[in-house]
Amino acid sequence: MSTFDSALIMLAAAIFFSLLIERLLQILKAVYDFLEVHYHWYEHWNRRALTVSGQVDAAMQGKALQKALGRAVKEYLKDDYPGLEGVQAVSADALRRLTIKAVSKVLAVALGIAIALVLQIDMFALIEELNRAALADAPTSTLQTYFSTRYIPGWLGQLLSGIAIGLGSGPVHKVISALEKSRQRRKETTD
Fold first, then answer.
1. Where in the sequence is the domain holding 132, given as residue range(s)?
2. Structural contact between residues 3 and 128, judged by C-beta atoms closer than 8 angstroms
3. CA Rg, the chain, in Å?
């Protein structure tokens, strides 16, 4: 198998694993939603919303920094509750959504980094290998001006690749596209 083929397979693996992580987290969220309803965990979110509401009230009466933080949290205040129109309260649903979204993103990035480190997926090095194979006839000095990983250590490339994989297939595709566009621009300026 050629270098071009193996690099292409590793990039496809990066996209595959990003899709796998996205679907795995969707399944975990569905299981959590089921368990939350079955075991009445939603009461936790109501209690937590009351706690945050008290903290927001205290912050709004405090110092300037605390007031600014209180205004930032105001996004989670709702005043459209039936029978309590005009009364602002922290939305347990908004708090739940924010918490689940944050936890799932952290978990996805951790899984992506673990996969990239275990499988040694470095998208920067893979793009460089693809460019070397595609431009095999070009002089060596020209190849280095297109794209070079000499400034990016392998562990950092794997870490950044893992973060991209964890953030999902959209970011992985954007990273690959950006790297390819960068190579094209450099090629056009040297031609």
1. 3-190
2. no
3. 24
Single pTM value for the model: 0.72
- DSSP calls for the chain: --HHHHHHHHHHHHHHHHHHHHHHHHHHHHHHHHHHHHTTTHHHHHHHHHHHHHHHHHHHTS-HHHHHHHHHHGGGEE---TT-TT--EE-HHHHHHHHHHHHHHHHHHHHHHHHHHHHT--HHHHHHHHHHHHTTTS-HHHHHHH---TTS-HHHHHHHHHHHHHH-HHHHHHHHHHHHHHHHHHHHHH-
Say how many domains are in the chain: 1
Q: Mind giving me the DSSP string for 34-77?
A: HHHHHTTTHHHHHHHHHHHHHHHHHHHTS-HHHHHHHHHHGGGE
Sign for the pseudo-dihedral over CA of 166, 167, 170, 176: negative
For position 25, what pLDDT does the model report? 94
Query: Quick one: average pLDDT of 174-178?
Result: 76
Answer yes or no: are the C-beta atoms of 86 and 122 closer than 8 Å. no
75-79, 97-101, 131-135: which is most confident: 97-101
